[in-house]
Design brief:
The chain is 52% helix and 11% strand. The protein has two domains: 99 residues, Resolvase, N-terminal catalytic domain (Rossmann fold, 3-Layer(aba) Sandwich); 37 residues. It is α/β, with parallel strands linked by helices. α6 packs across α7.
């Protein structure tokens, strides 16, 4: 069965042209909604569509941007459809048709390119982090207490003050005092 999905981003827009194109493409049932494409979560009709799918079914959209806003979002949806043994067709992008051998090949190549790009980005980030660490850049939250404060805390604690009292004086949590004492 071919299911259509039509979506517009705001109430002032109309999805009638999408519905007509989906009907012309042979969609037996069409899910349509007025919702932001920012993410797939919270789109009620899209969720209903995904629940209605059975193996062998196909999801049809007029354009890719009606389904997903980002390539990662599209990849996730296509992966979920593949897991359910369902196809995907975009009428506006003829290369995006997982119901044909050529379409599956193109999508496989595109997925490989996306994975390669992600690994390049990860590698560049790791290199940048390593360079920053070599320059002495500290990562994470700044410490609440400097070295001299930690020494004073250790002295006061040794003199009998409690961690609760020290935490109150330095306006930090007791866990911070505990870590300061452990470091000292």
């Amino acid at each position: 069965m071919r299911y259509g999905y039509a979506r517009v981003s705001s109430n002032s827009q109309d999805y009638a042209a999408q519905v007509d194109a989906l009907k012309a493409a042979g969609c037996e049932r069409i899910f349509s909604e007025k919702a932001s494409g920012k993410s797939t979560s919270g789109r009620k009709e899209f969720e209903k569509l995904m629940k209605a799918l059975l193996p062998g079914d196909a999801v049809v959209v007029t354009k890719l941007d009606r389904l997903a806003r980002s390539s990662r979002d599209l990849h996730n949806v296509l992966h979920e459809l593949q897991e359910r043994s369902c196809g995907f067709v975009s009428l506006g992008e003829t290369w995006c048709d997982t119901t044909t051998d050529v379409g599956r090949l193109v999508m496989t190549i595109m997925g490989g390119i996306a994975e390669f790009e992600r690994s390049l980005i990860r590698s560049r980030c790791d290199d940048g982090i390593a360079r920053a660490k070599a320059k002495g850049t500290k990562f994470g939250r700044p410490t609440a207490l400097d070295a001299s404060q930690k020494r004073k805390i250790a002295d006061r604690y040794a003199a009998g003050e409690t961690m609760a009292m020290l935490a109150r004086d330095y306006e930090v949590g007791e866990a911070t005092i505990f870590r300061a004492l452990k470091a000292a």
